[in-house]
Amino acid sequence: MATAADPNRKTNDAPATGSKRRNLLLPALLLSLIAATAAGAGVWYYTQLHAAPAGPQPAPPPAPALYVAVDPAFVVNLPFSYDGPRYLQVEVQLMTRDPLALEKIRANLPAIRARLLMFFAQTDPSLIGDRAGMETLQNNALVEVQQLLKAETGSNSAEALLFTSFVTQ
């Protein structure tokens, strides 16, 4: 039997010292794991806030439309027809989104008006009796205006030509 003075005798102090180290190491590792997880979550959140969204970006809204009225209304005699209208009265507005183009259009209004007057006077009465014919006339009139503006200013300037009144008789 071993006595209290026996050096080979194991006491409860030795395992308690190693166990204390293990008990302190476990919370330190747990705390490190929590800190690393929180840091990773913070980095992910930051990158989600500042990352470019995936997929195609929506187009920015267009600039506001600017209109120029080509006053007064056009009134033209149409080529003679037994079964169709003989007069055309149409009010026209030009649309652009560029303020500089707006000034170019305004500067060339007399030439635009003259060109459209000749164009409308050559309209075949049988072609403007329905919506499709009116839309074709509108598109062709826009092409006339854009050709004139291209020759005078170097750019089309007008994006759309709108009929605000359309009367045939």
Topology:
Elements: H1 13-50, E1 66-77, E2 87-96, H2 99-107, H3 109-121, H4 131-153, E3 160-168
Helix pairs in contact: 3-4
Quote the beta fraction: 15-25%
Strand order of the largest sheet: 1-2-3
| Tally of contiguous helical segments | 4
- Give the H and E element order: HEEHHHE
State the fourth-level CATH superfamily of the largest domain: Band 7 domain
Globular, elongated, flat, extended or rod-shaped: what is the shape?
A: rod-shaped
Q: How far from one another are the termini?
A: 133 Å
The helix content is 40-55%
CATH topology of the largest domain: Tetrahydropterin Synthase, Chain A
> How many domains, as an integer?
2
Average pLDDT value?
Answer: 84
Main CATH class of the largest domain? Alpha Beta
Radius of gyration: 42 Å
Biggest pleated-sheet summary: 3 strands, antiparallel
Number of strands: 3
Reported CATH architecture of the largest domain: 2-Layer Sandwich
Return residue spans where pLDDT drops below 50 for at least 5 consecutive residues. none
